[in-house]
Amino acid sequence: MEFNPIVFDTSEQTVGGYQAGRCDVLTSDTSQLAALRIQLDDPSASMILSEVISKEPLGPVVRQGDDLWFNIVKWSLFAMLNAEEYGVTSENVDEMTSSEDPNIARLLGQDGNYGEGMNLEADWAYNIISQVGNYAESFDRNVGMDSPLEIERGVNALWTDGGFQYAPRFAKRLA
Fold it and tell me: 11 with 39: CB under 8 angstroms?
């Protein structure tokens, strides 16, 4: 296949060039393509192909050297992933605080303070889940099927659902 790459400096220029017919296709990671697509005058006139030709892992990023903040961000993501795996949602988190499952009790701060090593209160993960939701809730709302981007979970699904997402369990000390 022959092609002539056309490079744009900004997302706005990319959308404008595509709509003006300066190029026939766009390539980028799926989330960027979805974000560009909803900026088109008629998003339904373009589609994102299911074939993935690149992989760019996207996730939380923190400044190097701030180990405490790094651990808080990392374990916040892990808490959201564990909550999804255990079936804990923003809607049922209050009733789940009385769960007899030790994994859920540790996650929600009912059995020990697993945030202590990060200078957090025992209920730090409960607060995240009650205010933001588990990973699925956040994904769906921000980039998934409940958002304008309508990105399917795909490899962002839990490992139990054929995706790559998994998190370590809460143990004696987090950090």
Answer: yes
**Alpha carbon distances (Å) from 37 to 12, 56, 71, 141, 154:** 11, 19, 35, 18, 19
- Ranges assigned E (strand) in the chain: none
Residue 126, phi then psi, degrees to nearest 5: -55, -45
Cα distances from 124 to residues 47, 115, 117, in angstroms, run 40, 7, 12
Q: What is the pTM of this model?
A: 0.85
Cα–Cα nearest to 25, from 47, 55, 54? 47
Q: What share of the chain is helix, strand, coil (3-state, %, to 5)?
A: 45, 0, 55
pLDDT-derived band at 57, boundaries 50, 70, 90 = confident
Task: Kindly give, in sequence order, each residue whose CB lies less than 8 Å from that of residue 70, ignoring residues fewer than 6 positions away.
Answer: 62
Q: Where are the domains of the chain?
A: 1-58, 67-161
Mean pLDDT, to the nearest integer, of 28-32? 88
CA 143 – CA 35 distance, rounded (Å): 9
Give Cβ neighbours of residue 151 (< 8 Å, ≥ 6 apart): 30, 31, 34, 143, 144, 145
